[in-house]
Amino acid sequence: MCALAVPVSLLISRFVPGVGAATAAVALGTALASTGAVRAPLRPGLAFVSKRVLRAAVVLLGLQIAVPQVLALGWRSLAVVAVSTGLTFVLTPPAGRRLGLSPGTSLLVATGVSICGASAIAAMHDSTDSTDDEAAGAIAVVVLYGSAAIVVLPLLASWLGLPPDRLGVWTGAAVHEVAQVAAIGAATGVLATAVTVKLARVVLLAPIVAVTTSLRRLDGARETPAGTAPSGSAGAGRPPIVPLFVAGFLAAVAVRSTGLLPTAVTDSVPALTNALLAAALFALGTGIDLRKLLRRGRVMALGAISTGLIAATSLAAVSLLG
C-alpha cells in the first residue's frame, strides 16, 4: 500500500504548487483511513513504515545539509533562525496548556511549527510517548497554516515593502514545510536564500529532539519510586539518551559537510528522502481519524498562535538585519 501511495504523492506534489510529497501522503493516508480502506492485516506493515522507514528518511535528510553552506548565511541570519525557532518551541507548550491541550499535542505542534513541519513532528513523535492521535492534530496544523502562508506571506511582504534579501530570510525562518518555502521562494525570486535558511532550521531538529527526549526521560526517572523499574522497561535495557536515528542524522550532516560525497550521490539523495518521508507519513496518515480531527478547534487555535509567534518574531528579527 505504501509503495503505491508514494508515486501518487510525488505526482500530486509535482502538479500542485506548494504541496510537498509528505503533505500529499498524509492527506492520502487520511482519506483512505476515513473510507475504511485500511484493514487490520495492513497495520503491522504500516507501523513498520511509520517508524523504521521514517528513521531512515531522517538520517538521509542530514545528507542534504552542508554546515559550511549554512554558516555562509552569516551570523545575523542564523541569529534570526535561532531566536524565532527557540522562542516558538519554548512558548508554544505553555500556550497549549492554557488551552487545555495535552502535553504531547503541545510539544508536537511546537516541534512542527518551529522546525520543519510534518517530518519534524513524526521524528519527535517517534522519540517520545505521544500518541498517533496527537501527531495527527499537529500535522493538520502545519499543513493548514503552512499552505496558507504560500498566499499570505508574499502579500504581507509586498505590503511591508520587504526587500528580496530580507524576504528570503523571513520565508525560510517562518514557513513550516520545505516544499512551502520553495513555493514562496520560487514565486518571489528568493529561492536559494529561503531554502538555505530553512535548512538551517532543519539542523536544529537533532539537538531539539535529543534534549527533549533526555529531559522527559529524566522527569520520568524522578517520578518513578525508588527501587521500581520504569514502566515497560522490565527485561529491557534503557534506550539511548540520544535516539540512534538522531545520531545518524548528525553523522550524515558531518559526512555531507566534508564535501567528499560524489555529485551523483548528493543529487539523488533529495528524491530518495522525499520518497521515504512520503511512505512514512502516508503510514502515519492511515491512523488519523478525520472525524476527531474536525473537532480539534483548540489544536487549530494553538497552531494559529504558534504560527503567528514564529512569523512575528522572525519578521521582527529580520527587520533588524543590516
Can you tell me the number of structural domains? 1
Count of beta strands: 0
Mean pLDDT: 83
Alpha-carbon Rg, integer: 19 Å
Tell me the distance between the termini. 51 Å
Q: How do the helices and strands follow one another from N- to C-terminus?
A: HHHHHHHHHHHHHHH
Structure annotation, total helices: 15
Overall 3D shape: globular
| Beta-strand content estimate | under 5%
Helix vs. strand class: mainly alpha
Largest sheet: none
Q: Share of helix among residues?
A: over 70%
Low-pLDDT regions: 229-239
Membrane topology: Multi-pass membrane protein
Keywords: Cell membrane, Membrane, Transmembrane, Transmembrane helix
GO cellular component, one term: plasma membrane
Pfam family, one: Cons_hypoth698
Molecular structure report:
- With 322 residues, the protein is mostly helical.
- It has one domain.
- Helix content is 77%, strand content 0%.
- The chain contains 15 helices and no strands.
- Helix 2 runs parallel beside helix 13, helix 3 runs antiparallel to helix 13 and helix 8 packs parallel to helix 10.
- It is a multi-pass membrane protein.
- It is found in: Cell membrane.
- Keywords: Cell membrane, Membrane, Transmembrane, Transmembrane helix.
- InterPro entries: UPF0324_pro.
- Pfam families: Cons_hypoth698.
